[in-house]
Amino acid sequence: MRTWISSATVMLILLALIVPPASVGQTACQLNVPTLKLGVQGIASGAHADYGRQINMGATLAIEEINAAGGILGCKLEMRFMDDENKPATGVKNARFLVNEWGAHFLYGTDSSGIAMALGPVLQELKRIQFFTHAATHRLTEELVYDKKIKEIVRVSAPVYQDAIAAWVFKDNPEIKRWATIGADYEYGYATWAIFKDVMKKSRPDAEFVGAAWAPFLTLDFSSQIAAVMATNPDAIIATPWAGEAVTLLRQALLMGVFDKVQAWFQAMGGSVDVLEGISREVQDNRFKGKLWATARYIHNWPNTQINRSFVERFQKRWSRLPNYSAETTYSAIYITKLALEKAKSLDTDSVLAALNGMRIPTPAGLRVYRSEDHQFVYNVPAGRVVWDAKYPIPVLGDLVVIPANEYWRSPPFTAVPVGK
Amino acid sequence: MDTIGYQGLIGVSLAMSLWLISAGLTIIFGVLGVINFAHGSLFMVGAYMAYTFYGLLGFPFGLSVLLSLAVAAVLGLIMERGFLRHLYHLDHAYQLLLTFGFVLVLDDAVKIIWGGVFKIPPIPRFLDGAWPVFGRPFPVYNTFLIAIGILVGIGLWALFEKTWWGRVVRATASDREMANAIGVNVPWVFSTVFVVGAMLAALGGALGTPIRVAAPGIGAAMIIQAFIITVIGGLGSLKGAFTGSLIVGILSAYGTLFFPIFELFFSFVIMTVVLLVRPQGLFAHVN
Fold first, then answer.
1. Residue-wise pLDDT tens digits, A29-38
2. CATH 3.40.640.10 fits A36-159+303-378, yes or no
3. Per DSSP, which regions of A28-112 are E strands?
4. For A57-103, what is each residue's pLDDT tens digit?
5. What is d(CA B9, CA B253) in angstroms, rounded to the nearest whole number?
6. Does domain A163-294+382-408 have CATH number 3.90.580.10?
7. Is A242 an interface residue toward B (CB < 8 Å)?
8. Chain B interface test: which of A45, A51, A223 (most B C-beta within 10 Å)
9. CB neighbours of B286 closer than 8 A, spacing ≥ 6?
10. Which residue in A has a C-alpha nearest to residue B138's C-alpha?
11. Within chain A, which residue ranges are assigned CATH 3.40.50.2300?
């Protein structure tokens, strides 16, 4: 018995020597939590699935990098990703699960404006900040934050002001006067058309808005929408269906000879990686005749900075894919969290929000500046012509038009823009 | 006038793609009495299979469509023989639950096999381009869809009206006990009808591949419209499904042109009116 006890004692001593205590070799989490839990959601199924997938990839990359460098204030990051299935009810259910059941300290993501508007008021109840990294409606920040003071909403991605950049890009083209839209038949499509018209009327009083056709989610055949707007003889079209639906729309427009008639087609989120992949063959064959223009909430080939080039390289190495905007915005949102927490040294919502005040952070998309009135990060994203560049495996935006965001983004105090069909 | 004519033609092509899917749905209901929620999933499977054969493996488009139909036929056979057959004696609710289960299984299977991201192959050369109709370019693809829709209509009419199999099916649909008593192999009839329905759904999906993306959940969009059409035309009536498709397709196209704000309501308004005035649908008979 004595031999056994002494052997066990020796083993324990050896183990104590071999295995260092938790505090040795790694700093204890200064935020007093076992791990910092980040709940992430986006669309991970259906024609828009690539956005949720890219949100997941961007978040994963940021978390891997931050954890490899020791975490945030010594706290390791842990992520849980959920598919919101592009349904507001699922988005709200996910958020409740992530916070109440899983214990998320912060939330990220959300692709759809409709889901974002449903989720906003729930965040107040959950007492958690969500960094929105895709949903674009201006109402999220103008109405829910600026008017209704829902402080838990912070948006890192460019809102629908970006989609309306078309009004600035084409304001000096007198030959383009008659505009029509093929719009996404929900919040995002209405908001883009409303803001586009609002901006265009100011800079081009002669502009005419001749037609509008609306396509709900899951539209598989856009021919009636295309035929309806083409019947109004527009000079240019601004289109807001996105992801796989944008690809379907553009291919059908090609088949219907639209690019022989119009002078420009502005596909609002056509600078998205999945859309560019989907129309690669047609761009290579110059089927759009140089008339297809687009923007995005970040494009991988701009700005030409070290931080962006390095991000794109690391992203490609990790995922064998070019980063889309939802990846960059989520990646940057997690680094914004890091900076805010390091300043706040607390998980308290008010402390974190106070730490965001005045924040200017270099990100792959360029310098992001926090606007405290509406909790919106402001940064520039260019618009450009969709072109083939042999340097890249997919088409890119070229002939870039860079306009400072402060010139075309709406800013407080906000006056309401009537939004509707 | 040209605008109205052109938009009407666009509506007809829209109607023909709706017809392909609603035809299968109504045949299955008419004979088996099953409301097949998974019909949209078979449409999706058709799209993915056509993408795989044509877009990935490089088979000719026509052959790819035929192979997609073959896969859907096998899948339909498994669904009917392996599962549905055991529920015919139970309440309709069990069949609904089972077919809804198929939707979930097939959606997830597609995500596992092809991933969640949409797929799109090149446009076949013979479907590319347009020809002038009412002074505007009308796509060859839409013309092709109209032709296929009409051919399928004629083919189904001939199949049900002019063949022995069609007579057996109609007899079974009319009175399955009597058909059984006179020696008709009713289970075999059910299997073949389900397979034909599955192939029609897959045909709709496969033919859309050149312009539409193949993505999980695309069947959901089609199945809602197909249900509206079958309610308008009358559940179980092929003539009803064809007419219902034309009504929904053409009114949807004109709605987009003239009433873009209300266009989405049109189908539902028509369905509501039909349900109020003639609940059995335009062409179905009340037993």
1. 999 999 999 9
2. no
3. 36-42, 77-83, 106-109
4. 999 999 999 999 999 999 999 999 999 988 999 999 999 999 999 99
5. 9
6. no
7. no
8. A223
9. B280
10. A256
11. 36-159+303-378, 163-294+382-408
